[in-house]
Design a protein that fits this description.
single chain, about 260 residues, two-stranded antiparallel sheet, amino-acid biosynthesis, kinase, ATP binding, EC 2.7.2.8, cytoplasm
């Protein structure tokens, strides 16, 4: 057992699949025999579904959500509300002492409003989207020391007390760096990185920066996977030794995982 935690990020697409969630929580049980565990969750599909029920169509640009004031409300309802609570309830079924919170709780994740970006010649204002300015990990450290499993929704707060949507992969990376995690696991529906998304035999067991750049040029790395790999390289740059992209049933063996390397 090490004091350096494992940070696991699970995407929203997996939260509706009972078999995937069962495999995920069983994996977390095994991980906790090695180190304390922090879970960070997304919830984009659920937030989009709720928005559409309200007659609102969110805008996604290169895997990133443009967050209007209405989008921010919806994200709070979906992520910090239903999803976070449901994940805690499910974790407790597997004997995990889960505690649900957002990254804003305790002022853990401090952010600043993202300035407009230029993407493919267009200026995009992402609205209520926060970029990480600093992490204050005392609350998470206190929970981990008490033997709890924090389950964190990706909402940050600025120094004026305003809430922001923050990409869940980015939140997980920032928390992992602040907690000096040994291992950072990005859990996806399809598992590791593939050259051909629909072909499991095209799995890459390792992905370095040169492979990533080639994938961008050739078009088989894009969208959400591009964001995940960018975050994975950020994690390596912040001295997290082990970074993997993998499926929910592969947390322990990592046989079908992609290890991201410099």
């Amino acid at each position: 057992m090490t004091n350096h935690p494992i940070v696991v990020k699970i995407g929203g697409a997996l939260l509706e699949a009972s078999e995937s969630l069962e495999a995920f929580w069983k994996g977390v049980v095994g991980l906790r025999q090695q180190a304390p565990v922090v879970v960070v969750h997304g919830g984009g599909p659920q937030a989009t579904a709720l928005a559409q029920r309200l007659g609102h169509q969110p805008r996604i640009v290169q895997g990133r959500r443009v967050t209007t004031a209405l989008d921010l409300q919806i994200l709070q309802w979906a992520l910090r509300g239903e999803l976070n609570l449901r994940l805690v309830a499910t974790a407790l079924q597997y004997g995990l002492p889960a505690v649900g919170l957002s990254a804003a709780d305790g002022g853990t994740l401090r952010v600043r409003r993202r300035p407009p970006w230029t993407i493919e010649g267009e200026t995009v204002d992402f609205g209520w989207v926060g970029d990480v300015s600093r992490v204050e990990p005392a609350l998470l450290q206190h929970l981990l020391a008490g033997g709890y499993v924090p389950v964190v929704a990706p909402l940050g707060i600025d120094d004026e007390g305003l809430l922001y949507n923050v990409n869940a992969d980015t939140v997980a990376c920032a928390l992992a760096a602040a907690l000096q995690a040994h291992t950072f696991l990005l859990v996806t529906e399809t598992g590791g990185v593939r050259r051909r998304p629909d072909d499991p035999t095209s799995l890459l067991h390792h992905c370095d920066r040169l492979t990533f750049e080639a994938g961008l040029r050739e078009g088989w790395i894009r969208g959400g996977m591009q964001v995940k790999l960018e975050v994975a390289f950020q994690a390596l740059a912040q001295h997290i030794p082990e970074v993997y992209i993998l499926a929910p049933d592969d947390l322990l063996t990592r046989r079908q995982a992609t290890r991201v390397t410099p």
